[in-house]
Design brief:
By secondary structure, the protein is an alpha/beta fold. It is built from six helices and twelve strands.
């Protein structure tokens, strides 16, 4: 059996890749051909190169496999990515928005940002690395344009408040947010479901309409993905 690639029926620039053994994996078209960001497999199909998208390494891929109905990241759009780390998921976002889009990557850890710059951004001109604390959006306000969506994956308490503060400053009217809630980073003494509800209530109080909440197990323990619109 040969490798085949088909566009996902719901999400632009996200693909289903069927491998030689018949298994089906998520993938994105590689904006930096020949370059793998985190050891993912690269496959060729009809003259294009695709990167397999590992749900055990990327919460967004996990959420799609768990039934996410909306991925508010589209070609040609601007995305603010909070907690970009070394670029595993951010690089797939870069693939999706394409050369005419842009991903502003905020990361607090200098070592992770250095890996992001040296291994990812150097080959992807639609990514801007920003060494900053996502709790303080005013410190990088001059480096970020208005964005269509914000992706937040930070190991901080008050994750929803942090996201809402950034949305107040950068998110366009009608824009979307994607929040990966890490329950144990917020309160290890409470059940994850209680933590999720508390963070969701914060978003609602800040004017967001919750579109969907998806648990990420078995890919990530005590994590949920929230999709919301302002």
């Amino acid at each position: 059996m040969v490798v085949t690639v088909k566009l996902h029926p719901l999400f632009p620039e996200i693909f289903w890749v069927t491998l030689e053994d018949g298994s089906r994996k998520l993938g994105t078209k590689n904006l930096a051909q020949g370059n793998a960001v985190y050891g993912e497999r690269l496959v060729k199909f009809s003259g294009d190169e695709y990167r397999l998208w590992d749900p055990y390494r990327s919460k967004l891929a996990a959420a799609i496999l768990k039934g996410l109905e909306t991925v508010p990241i589209y070609p040609n759009q601007r995305v603010l990515y909070l907690g970009a780390a070394s670029g595993t998921t951010a690089s797939h976002v870069s693939d999706i928005v394409g050369e005419s889009g842009h991903v502003y990557c905020v990361e607090f850890a200098s070592r992770s940002l250095r890996e992001l710059v040296n291994s990812v951004c150097v080959l992807r001109y639609n990514m801007s690395p920003i060494l900053a604390d996502a709790r303080l959006p005013e410190t990088y306000s001059r480096m970020v344009e208005q964005v269509n969506s914000i992706y937040c994956d930070v190991a901080q308490p008050e994750q929803a408040r942090l996201l809402a503060d950034n949305a107040d400053m950068f998110l366009a009217d009608g824009g979307w947010v994607i929040l990966a809630i890490k329950a144990q980073s917020i309160d290890v003494t409470k059940e994850p479901s209680v933590v999720y509800q508390k963070e969701i209530a914060v978003l609602e109080a800040r004017g967001f309409r919750i579109d969907q909440v998806v648990g990420l197990e078995p890919f990530d323990k005590a994590h949920a993905m929230v999709i919301a619109q302002k």
